[in-house]
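To the team - 2-acetamido-2-deoxy-beta-D-glucopyranose complex, inputs and output below.
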Amino acid sequence: MAIHSSNNNYFYIMFICSLLFGICSSQLTSNFYDSTCPKALSIIKSAVASAVAKEHRMGASLLRLHFHDCFVNGCDASILLDDTSTFTGEKTAAPNLNSVRGFDVIDNIKSQLESACPGIVSCADILAIAARDSVVSLGGPSWNVGLGRRDSTSASKDAATKDIPSPLLDLSGLITAFSNKGFTTQEMVVLAGAHTTGQARCQIFRGRIYNETNIDTNFATSMKSNCPSSDGDSNLTALDVTTNVLFDNAYFKNLVNNKGLLHSDQQLFISGGSTNSLVTNYSNSYSAFFADFASAMVKMGNLSPLTGTTGQIRANCTKVN
Ligand code: HEM
Ligand SMILES: *[C@@H]1O[C@H](CO)[C@@H](O)[C@H](O)[C@H]1NC(C)=O
Ligand SMILES: *[C@@H]1O[C@H](CO)[C@@H](O)[C@H](O)[C@H]1NC(C)=O
Ligand SMILES: *[C@@H]1O[C@H](CO)[C@@H](O)[C@H](O)[C@H]1NC(C)=O
Ligand SMILES: *[C@@H]1O[C@H](CO)[C@@H](O)[C@H](O)[C@H]1NC(C)=O
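Output:
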């Protein structure tokens, strides 16, 4: 019955889309679970709120999981699949290894949803909703999350390595990495504003604090105390040196002051850079940042979802059925 209901949704939406001659860019709808799992949104919301209350960083980690899922062959929960002796997932790809986290929170949400409505809510949708709820929990903007994504039966370590942008990229490389996924330069800049929260490891930003010149001197000195030139690789530091547990526009203010932590962060505001005025504008306008971030997150969540009868609804997010 549940399956019929999702199929009905699907065919109804496809019908509307065909009436509009392909104007529909996405088959996701925010009321997708209203009849099949009415408690889905509230279950996810309270689980995220309690995880973030326990550890603020978890909000950042859940937001990043959705990004690293969507940039690798679309928002299909491929990042959640564990490696086995016969299967290579994405967790060991360089951008993810010893870095992405939050899997336990997702698994906990999934088991609550399987008890409430077995076989209905996809892991990919959980990631999308948890990302939104995390941002809200940290004081950021909200947006309507389109739903109806299904879960992949495959993953790609190669695509994860290639498609998730490296923190060593220069501005032109960042623009290309996002343009490859259909994002404008402005959308890239606003999405990077996610680094208003969360942390990074010493090994990721060491080159910047020791070797770059477009960095505030006091900021560099203070970062070095917890990140020696050849030790403490895994030591963590806030991506936003001013208000790290708040989702606000301080990230952009930091960039204007040469206090970006990652090489890639500061690339958005460099001498003569083409994105400087965007950064300045977001540093001056909380509301412009919030509105544009919310729209760009909706767009990210629409990256190549599996819908209709493609993919599956995993029973356990860490493995295919
Ligand atoms: C613009 C290109 C981007 C690059 C090069 C980049 C790179 C990174 C790196 C290297 C880290 C630290 C990893 C570590 O030390 O373990 C990080 C953390 C983070 N990134 Fe990005 N990122 C980018 C864009 C984004 C986007 C678009 C989002 C989400 C919309 C995002 C969300 C986060 C969050 C929230 C954290 C902190 C995670 C935590 O504390 O668990 N990033 N990013
Ligand atoms: C999902 O599968 C993993 C690996 O088999 C297992 O450790 C975990 O407990 C399972 N999760 C649930 C909620 O059953
Ligand atoms: C800084 O640059 C020098 C010269 O390129 C290099 O030898 C050194 O390893 C770099 N230091 C860090 C911390 O990246
Ligand atoms: C790493 O961070 C911890 C906690 O702040 C600190 O005690 C330790 O000295 C740091 N390690 C290095 C090598 O700086
Ligand atoms: C920045 O804001 C100013 C003033 O509102 C506006 O004229 C300008 O077009 C904005 N720049 C960008 C790149 O959006």
